[in-house]
Amino acid sequence: MSFAMHVPILAIAAPLLGAFSLPLMAKVHHRLRDLWAIIVGAFTVAMIVTLAVQVFGGGIQVYTLGAEAPDATLGPEGFPIRITLVADAMGAFMALISALLGGAALVYALGFAQDGKGKTLSMSLLLLLWAGMLGLKLTGDLFNFFVFLEITTVAACGLIAYRVWESRPPEAAFKTLVMFILGGLMVLLAVALLYGEYGALNMAYLSNQIGGGLIDRMALGLLVGGLLMKAGAVPMHMWAPDAYGEADANTAIVLVANTQAGLYGLLRMLFTLYGGAATPEVGWLITSLGALTVLVTVLMAVVQHRLGRLVAYGAVSQIGYMLLAAGVALVTVGARPEFGQLALQGSVFHMINDAACIGLLFLCVGAVHRATGTGDLRSLGGLAHTERWTSGFFLLGALALAGIPPLNGFASKLMIYQSVFMLSPILAALAVLASILLLAVFVRAFQGAFLGPRQNVVSKPPSPAMLIGMGVLAAVVIAFGLFPDVMVRHVVAPAAEALWTGRDAYMAAVLGG
User: How far is CA 53 from the centre of its chain?
Assistant: First the structure.
């Protein structure tokens, strides 16, 4: 039995082990803690990359816990009774996003977080959230999907709230906890309905059984509602700007990855679990909520004067673009499949582009706080004189977020605009205007924070670890913008295809046949 067969479970187990062992290392010495965090993070990234190579090069990978062989998914009666991990191209793609943001956040935290102010706790919770996200993206059964969803809830809220010496983070964590608990209960109730109807939890088996009856539709409604809360779609978005805006910079970017994990769960349920049973009416609902999310959050970004909250609203607006394109794909799945496929590719591609540019912006916000002790635009100015790297990285991320060529946001947004235009020119115009307005908002923020005369304040430059974290994300922003066709052809298209037409292959890989 080769080591490579166990990569799916190792990718989840490594950060989980690291989360609980890190405090023990800190008891010995803080340098040992940092070294252990680097080892765990590097091993996790290596496992994720190895898994992605296996999936994109050799097809769907199935790993079954407790079986004689990792690929033996069925029990004695041919019924799926064991806990199964399934990595198709979409799951592997989402795991890569977790590797990008989780790895960058961990490196950044080494130089940003402070001993005596919860550094060990925050890094442990970061690893726990990383493990939960990976489990959610790779699990093959509904109950464990719920379990990993709850792990991410606990870890995310802990990461937001651990700075109890400040007033705002605990309040933001409470809002997040309420929404995540409500969403989790809706998902749990949906799991209970489907288990009561079919007596199974395996997603491949359930996908083969679901026919669109009343119980199926009730479960679908609960899943959609619960996962939209997790994704932060308007009008269930009120937790997201507070959570992003009040969290540490390294926490904020893993919260972005966690939000995208909720969006991934929604797409997995709609396309893989339900397939043809997910009607165009559901697509119109997703499309409408996506458009509403784009419009509301961009308008809210206009009135923000705190840099962190401004970036937070920009982050939520990008979820709207992903939902808008995913909804178009659902609406056109039968009538105009060529546009639906393009829309889904745009939505999937925008996930990793958004992760890179939003992650970069949040890390820049952290560098601004470190340099000046504030993120209030009314108190900032002239930082480009002393914080040249931070100012350059912020401008790069802002231009990419607005979709300015030749950066990465342009390629995915162009795919979204084109596909949405085929469904509704009005929605496409709304999406373009929102991007223009977002560009104006971030230009104003850049001017307020970085331009102008030098301020008479003590500036603390970013540490080397912080620069490495920002540099990795900046390199992704530039590379994916200059060579989008390579990324689309080899990674994005297979990931979108796994959702679009890969339902039968998913079931065959798990159930055989």
Answer: 20
- Give the residue-averaged pLDDT of 88-95: 95
User: HEC profile for 154-196?
Assistant: HHHHHHHHCCCCCCHHHHHHHHHHHHHHHHHHHHHHHHHHHHH
DSSP assignment, residue 458?
A: -
Predicted confidence band of residue 72 (pLDDT cuts 50, 70, 90): low
What is the C-alpha to C-alpha distance for residues 509 and 502, in angstroms, rounded to an integer? 10
| Cα–Cα dist 325/345, whole Å | 9
Averaged pLDDT, 361-372: 92
Asked if residue 51 lies in contact with residue 7, where contact means CB atoms within 8 angstroms, the answer is yes
Structure tokens at 10: 């190792």
3-state secondary structure of 452: coil
Evaluate if pTM is beyond 0.85.
Answer: yes
* Token output for 149: 């969803």
Reference 319, options 271, 361, 257; nearest CA is 257
Stretch 340-369: mean pLDDT? 93
Label residue 67 left, alpha or beta by phi (over 0 means left) and psi (-120 to 50 means alpha): beta
Is the Cβ–Cβ distance between 419 and 487 less than 8 Å? Answer: no
DSSP for 53-108, please give it: HHHHHH--EEEETTSSSTT----TTS---S-EEEE-HHHHHHHHHHHHHHHHHHHH
